[in-house]
Design brief:
By secondary structure, the protein is mainly alpha-helical. Helix content is 70%, strand content 0%. The protein contains 2 helices and no strands.
Length: 70
């Protein structure tokens, strides 16, 4: 009787493991099908321009001009 209890516990553990693996795969598949966020083109363009301006300021492109605050 002790062997059958051990066998039942092992089978229950294996089926639980398989079920959780299947649920995890189903959740990953659902996440892959989720719609992508909207692209905010004006915001992206403005951030790119700000980064470019900061990069040019760091390279001292505007050295001697009145664009920098002192």
């Amino acid at each position: 009787m002790d062997i059958s209890k051990k066998m039942a516990a092992a089978i229950a553990a294996v089926t639980t493991y398989i079920k959780t693996e299947e649920e995890m795969l189903a959740m990953q598949a659902a996440a892959a099908r989720a719609p992508l966020p909207e692209a905010h083109l004006w915001g992206t363009s403005a951030r790119r321009d700000m980064m470019q301006l900061r990069g040019m300021m760091q390279l001292r492109t505007f050295h001697g001009s009145n664009l920098r605050s002192r």
